[in-house]
Write a structure and sequence with these properties.
Helices cover about 65% and strands about 10% of the residues. Helix 8 runs antiparallel to helix 15, helix 12 (about 265-290) crosses helix 13 (about 290-305) and helix 15 runs antiparallel to helix 16 (about 350-390). It contains 16 helices and five strands.
């Protein structure tokens, strides 16, 4: 039985001698546990952005606005007097709901005409939509009953009888952008985007790390000593493979009956920039972590929590600021937001411009770092050769 003890000691020794594995094994659960706890720390979303279109601008409509302002679930992002620019604001800022108070609202209530407040719910994000609806329903229902009971009591009706009448105005709810609140339409595209990022980062970990580990980097330098040329050569195959993967993923949408609407050009443009940003990050890590296993581990640390903190399911605005900053450094966050806007909102370039700018910023930043790293590697590689040449002279 001694061999069992000896081999077990050996395994523990090997485990504790690998500092990176130890850090991942012990640190990753703690890190991800803390990170996900802070993502959902509020428990329920609060202060969800809504727009109020107040066409009446009366004391009564102002009271409703104040009641909405005091509700913990919603936050009035904008108050408008008409519908002009409302749709653009919804698409650009992911507004969860639009409440329209009609013209002559106050006078119609006092003349018992039962006017109608229209609430348009943005169900592209089911979580935000549900909580915003809850807050709006509570405010309007409470205010509705209060107005009716007060009016009836002023008319001489006994309080008990007045409390049986609850409707001074009607409320009509309409869903938009994912009208059936279909969870497949809501969640599945985000998972596909996560898969694309995960697959790319796994493969990209080997790009330069393998060259450095197997000492084959010099073969490339026999053909070119341009850092830009070397980065380009490493990028092109993955870009071509990414095109095939992108098309393959796209074909799955009609296969499973998930609508893929919106601008075909913008969809492919955002996908291309997303893939290039992932390639840039993968190459950068592979350049500065010249070991295949360690590069893979580092990229998996980046990729693992990316979907949770992307804001695709749980609103990004509900997370602590420091978690938002981490999310902004991951391409998936910006791509999924752009993808949802294009496919559900049928958004134009103006609406996804912030996401495209952030993706381009990440892409250029990591490519620049990669270029700097490769330039340094070329100089390091050539230094011994130059010394040998000098000695021969």
């Amino acid at each position: 039985m001694n061999w069992i003890v000896i081999l077990l000691k050996r395994e523990f020794r090997l485990f504790f001698s690998n500092k990176l594995v130890m850090a991942i094994f012990i640190g990753a659960p703690v890190l991800y546990g803390v990170l996900t706890a802070y993502v959902y720390i509020k428990g329920e979303p609060k202060e969800i952005s809504i727009i109020v279109v107040d066409e009446d601008a009366s004391p009564l409509s102002e009271n409703i606005r104040e009641a909405l302002h005091d509700n913990e679930y919603v936050d009035i992002f904008q108050i408008k007097s008409n519908q002009y620019g409302v749709e653009d604001a919804v698409k650009l800022h992911d507004i969860a709901a639009v409440i329209t108070i009609p013209d002559h609202f106050e006078s119609d209530i006092y003349s018992k005409k039962h006017p109608e407040i229209i609430v348009d719910i943005n169900t592209s994000n089911i979580v935000s939509a549900n909580y915003a609806s809850r807050g709006i329903q509570h405010v309007l229902a409470s205010y509705n009953a209060g107005i009716e009971i007060e009016a009836l009591q002023k008319g001489g009706m006994p309080a008990r009888q007045a409390q049986q009448h609850f409707e001074a105005f009607q409320v009509s709810y309409a869903r938009h952008y994912n009208q059936t609140a279909n969870y497949m339409v809501f969640l599945w595209p985000g998972i596909l985007g996560t898969i694309i990022q995960q697959v790319f980062l796994l493969a990209l970990a080997l790009t330069f790390a393998r060259e450095f580990e197997e000492q084959t980097f010099g073969i490339m330098l026999n053909y070119t000593k341009s850092a830009f040329g070397i980065i380009l050569i490493k990028t092109v195959p993955f870009a071509i493979l990414g095109l095939g993967l992108w098309v393959g993923m796209g074909l799955m949408f009609p296969l499973f009956g998930v609508p893929l609407q919106g601008s075909f050009l913008l969809l492919n443009l955002s996908g291309a920039v997303f893939i290039l940003a992932i390639i840039a990050i993968g190459i950068c890590v592979s350049v500065f972590v010249p070991n295949q296993l360690k590069a893979t581990e580092v990229l998996m640390i980046i990729a693992t929590p990316s979907f949770i903190i992307s804001g695709f399911t749980w609103p990004l605005a509900q997370m602590p600021t420091w978690v938002q900053h981490i999310a902004y450094c991951i391409p998936l966050t910006h791509f999924l937001e752009a993808f949802r806007k294009i496919t559900l909102y049928q958004a134009g370039l103006t609406h996804i411009l912030p996401q495209m700018q952030r993706l381009l910023f990440l892409m250029f930043t990591f490519y620049f770092l990669s270029l700097a790293g490769i330039y340094w590697k070329i100089r390091q590689f050539r230094k011994p050769l130059m010394c040998d040449a000098a000695k021969r002279k």
